[in-house]
């Protein structure tokens, strides 16, 4: 479901256009077969590596950084969604500017910003909103409160939940925002 009032929905509204309706535009099966581009897939792999590097030093707390772990099935699902959202763009995935965010409760923390291809002027912006695995967080939170000396100075590792949200905003058009919940 959608978290009403979450700070994550306001991400990427620097150009002043706000709001948006929910739409789901999915290519048909023959269109997906035509979209198979090995260069885009390599670029997507590099983009996911940059996302995982940003997650490795996530600033989720005031005092400590956390290492967020993205399970392989989640990474594959995110990669497929990024490729699908880029297929209708003039430069494909090369024109993507990706904001990586992690939702923790009702708060949304910016983890990093990655340009898919820094040599290309971005044509669209994506906000990838990941969530902490809530099944583990209460246990870890209790452990940290009970024994703060056991936590390394740099932080600790937390696993991400399988679901995510992607907010797409075209930077060259006044078209409304597209929000995908996966």
TrEMBL record:
UniProt keyword annotation of Cytoplasm present: yes
Keyword line: Apoptosis, Cytoplasm, Mitochondrion
GO biological process: apoptotic process; negative regulation of TOR signaling; response to hypoxia
UniProt key word Mitochondrion: yes
Domain of life assignment: Eukaryota
GO CC annotation, single: mitochondrion
Family to which this protein belongs: Belongs to the DDIT4 family.
Protein name: DNA damage-inducible transcript 4 protein
Organism annotation: Nothoprocta pentlandii
Gene encoding the protein: Ddit4
